[in-house]
Amino acid sequence: MFEQYNKMQKAVLETTLNLIIEKELQATSMSLIAKESRVSTGNIYHYFSSKEDIINELYKAIVLFNGDFVTKSLKEAATLQERFQQAWRNVIELGKQYPNGFRFIEQYSFSPYIYEQSKLEAYKGGWCGPMEQLYREAVEEGLFVSLDPHMMVQMHYGSFVYLLKSHQQNMLELTEDVAEQAIRFCWNSVSRG
Fold first, then answer.
1. Are 101 and 109 spatial neighbours (Cβ–Cβ below 8 Å)?
2. Which of 12, 33, 65, 141 pairs with 190 at a CA distance of 20 to 30 A?
3. Which residues pair with 191 in a beta bridge?
């Protein structure tokens, strides 16, 4: 998830993510990050000016990774419906394979710790923008009802978030069959036919 960073940056980001999931953001101090990552405080400050900078870099890195993960293999799908299905399958797989990244994004996307510029960069580089374009194409081709593509993506994402949260809390087994039913339901909820 943090392959583009050097060894120290990667250690700091991975450690921060794990600490935030374990202990929450307020309980994650720079000294704890340094201790757990085995990177000196001085080296941390060489790469990041503050805890907020670490959090924002973590946010951007996860969102960009998620964007690559969700949009992979979409070009291989022939039809809009196949691209739609593949993208949501990828969202589900992402949440299952990288639960800490999923939890971080869900918990802190609207946090005041995340700078507006980070949110903007993440939106453009993540998967929401490409999904919005896919929905826009479906509306233009008459496959979907004429609703705001951004709103439709967010409504459908909310459905998958709750499925993934239920899965992570062992309240629902998110099998392939359940995932396909949810994807079909989302398609049908905005489909014209």
1. no
2. 65
3. 144
Together in a domain, 73 and 31: no
Domain containing 38 equals 1-48
The predicted model scores a pTM of: 0.89
Q: How many CB atoms lie within 10 A of CB 57?
A: 19
Structure letter (DSSP) for residue 3? T
Residue 70: which of 146, 6, 181, 160 has the closest Cα? 160
Say if CB 180 and CB 112 are below 8 A apart. no
Radius of gyration of the chain from its Cα atoms, rounded to whole angstroms: 18
Q: Write the pLDDT tens digit of every residue in 116-174.
A: 888 887 777 788 888 999 999 999 999 999 999 999 999 999 999 999 999 999 999 99
Alpha carbon distance 125, 104 (integer Å):
17
